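Long-time lurker. I teach an intro course on protein structure, and each term I like to show students one example going from raw sequence to a predicted 3D structure in token notation. This year I'd like something fresh instead of my usual example. Would anyone be willing to generate the tokens for the chain below so I can use it in lecture? Attribution to the forum is fine with me.
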Amino acid sequence: MQHSGAQGAHPGFGAQWPVPAPSPGGLAAGGFSPHPPHAQAPPPHPPQPQPQPQPQPQPQPPAPGQSPGPGRGAAPQPPHPPQQPPHQPPLQPSAPPQPQAQPQPHPQQPLPAQPQSAPAPPAGAPAQPGGSMPPAEATGHVRLGPGAPVEIPAPDATPAQLDATRAAVAVLLIGPAGAGKTTVARYWADHRAVPTSHISLDDVREWVRSGFSDPQTGWNENSEAQYRLARRTCGFAARNFLANGISCILDDAVFPDWPVIGLGGWKRHVGPGLIPVVLLPGLDIVLERNAQRSGNRRLADEEVAHIHGRMAGWYSSGLPIIDNSRQDIASTAQMLDNVVARSLASPVSW
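-- Reply from a regular --
Happy to contribute to a lecture. Here you go:
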């Protein structure tokens, strides 16, 4: 009874219970040896001083009904407490966090992985400081307009669109070898007020180094295939230049009576808005200029005369023709400007 009273006198102070000296008499009474296990049991209970206030309100109601258990409602609980009390204290502190954990909207807030999708726009994030630029610009690449067929000027075209010196146009300069196509085209492109490119089909044809099929050695399947490939490449380049605001002038020896090397392929690859212009000086001028050439660009006089004769068929085609027999390069380029202006105002049907 004194032992139980001692426990009642010092409830919840199992670690301090052996410390007070007044009780050793009762401890020596023979009840101390059984209690050391209880003195060892308290060490797990020192973490219990915090949960003890909670078991105290529980034993108070059952204390009247459980008189044999003086003040420690844990007496009926010992079968369970040896396992539960050490576990219950962590469970009880964990219980208060559970009501705090009940605000599960917080786990639901992380659930919106949309903020995680927001990192996906970091590519767009650099675009925002730079302005409303699309993600392509954020990578440092310039967005280019897709190449499209060059169209004929619309009836309601603005004066700027019809200005031959400033409008974005695609011109095809046609003529025999020695007519001065490449020289005039390059000069015209150099002296325009707006960005203008020059593409020579002969130059593109000679991109093929090993296996180049020279038409001078004879026209065959290989030379025709390489010519078609070069023409399609020129048309693709012209369309892309025009789509991005850069005019283009091309030059080629197109024959009026030879569909393989005719206007049909150029119209197909560039578009109906292509402006064909024939540059056709006299035969004596052509022979003189051809003699100044070298390499595979120089043709035999007989071949030059044959080509020049076939080019005469353009006179009946309705295409604009410039005779630059007595014109220098600058005046020929000025005549080309005038032809382009008329073609923009009144497109030629071809």
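Some talking points for your students: Residues 170-345 form a domain with the Rossmann fold fold (CATH 3.40.50.300). Confidence is low (pLDDT under 50) at residues 1-20, 23-39, 69-76, 117-131.
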